[in-house]
Structure formats: structure tokens, C-alpha cells
Amino acid sequence: MLVRERGNRQHHCDLPTRTGGNLFGSWLGRATPYACNVHNVKLFFTNDNGTFVYDPQTATKPVEIETEADREKIMTYYQESCIKVLDERVEFVPKSLLRAIHWNTNQPGTTVFIPVVDQTAEYIDFLLGIFDYEGYGYQMFDDMKGQLAGLQYWIDSGKLKGPKVNLTSFEFNMLGLNLAPAYMMLENVHLIAEAMGLGSVVFGGYAGTVMLGGYPDEYRAWLSLCY
Fold first, then answer.
1. Higher pLDDT among residues 10 and 196, named by residue
2. Residue 22, by phi and psi: left (phi above 0), alpha (psi -120 to 50) or beta?
3. What is the mean pLDDT of the chain?
4. pLDDT at 86
5. Cα–Cα distance between 169 and 97 in angstroms, integer?
6. What is the pLDDT of residue 26?
7. Percent of the chain scored above 90 by pLDDT?
8. Which strand (E) or helix (H) includes residue 154?
């Protein structure tokens, strides 16, 4: 949690609101950078003591940790901002994980950190930016249906004069943009683990549909989640 609290402070943008500064979602600074500073990642973790979600509180002043004595605040913030959501360790569906990490993932004595990304706020924020007729003015079209994505009126009225951009490419880029903070957060955790002399592995590649209790039916017994 040091890696999240260490960067907990206020920061200010040097962009005027008329030229993109209005897209910034907050003035809160963290050790992990976010697109448009929209803090849309919650850090869950599960271990022998249960399952928790950690979301640091908002900074109260430009620099929270100013002296050595202030370092005690880190543990205080952690205790105040860490919420227990389950009394037990989360069980993963074995076949949703790569076989190479079965032997050490979520075993007794280990902690699994799981950043969860909510793309909604950043997606809406980015739409406001690309549809700004004084800015990009994207003419978004649905390449799967072969038609404009509901923007004909604004194109005909001259509000959107920018390049034509296909929806599939845009949403794939948005996915990558939103995933970056989660990977950076895990990298910070990985670096701290190494500094403490602990082993750690950063991995992805699990099958989300199976992990969340989707098909096939025989996997659902592993989780209480379902669609």
C-alpha cells in the first residue's frame, strides 16, 4: 500500500480549460498515473485473512507526507481506506488461469492483488473531448454495421468536421488506455515486493468470462458470481 499512498497528494494542471484542461477528472496525484487523472482503478487483494478493497482517501493538502513523523499517516490511511468484502480467500477457476501459474497463484500464505478497472468515467470523458467541434470533431462510424454511429445530424450541421474514426479501433485504444494504470499499479507492487525480499509474479491472460462465472456450466460451482 506504500506505493499507492506515497503519491497521495494534490497536483495542478498547467493546461487552460479551453485547450484540454477541462477533461481532467481530479486534482489528486497518485504514484500511478491515470489518463486525464480519472482515478478509475480499485485495488482488490485476497489472502488468508479474507478479501479486501483498498481505495485511498482524497488528499487534504498539496503534500501529505512532509516529514518523517508524517510517515505514520500511511498506515492510518491504509486502515481507514481498506474495506473487507469477504471473510475468505477468493477462489479462482483453475482453467481460467494459465497452467504455468497454477502452482503458486492464490496458494495458502500468498496474497493476490487484483486491480479492477471501471472504464465508464474515462470513456465518457474521452468522448467529450473527441466530439468537441473546436478540437478533434471525430466523425465516428460503426465499422461492424457499416454506418455512422448516430452522428449524422452533427456532421450535416457542421459541428463535427474531424477525421472519420472507426468504432472498433477507438474502443480498442480506450481499453489499452484504461488498462495501463492497472499494469503500472502491479509493477509498483512488484518493485516493493522485490525491495522487501519477497517473491512476486505479475501475470494476466486469464479468461474473464470464465472467471466471473460465465460459461461453461461446470465452472460455475467455483464461484458465487453469475450473469
1. 196
2. alpha
3. 77
4. 92
5. 27
6. 63
7. 15
8. helix 152-156
Cis peptide before 16 (omega within 30 of 0): no
157 burial level (CB within 10 Å; 0-12, 13-18, 19+): exposed
Strand order in the sheet with 164-166: 147-148, 139-142, 164-166
- CA distances for 71 relative to 9, 27, 65, 75, 125, angstroms: 13, 22, 6, 8, 34
> Cell triple for residue 30?
497518485
More confident residue, 88 or 19: 88
11: left (phi over 0), alpha (psi -120 to 50) or beta: beta
Cell numbers of 128, please? 467529450
Gap between the Cα atoms of 64 and 31, Å rounded: 13
Q: Mind listing the domains of the chain with CATH numbers?
A: 2-118+178-222 (3.40.109)
Which of 191, 34, 4 lies closest to 117, judged by CA? Answer: 34
How far is the C-alpha of 207 from the C-alpha of 215, rounded, in Å? 11
Mean pLDDT score, 161-188: 86
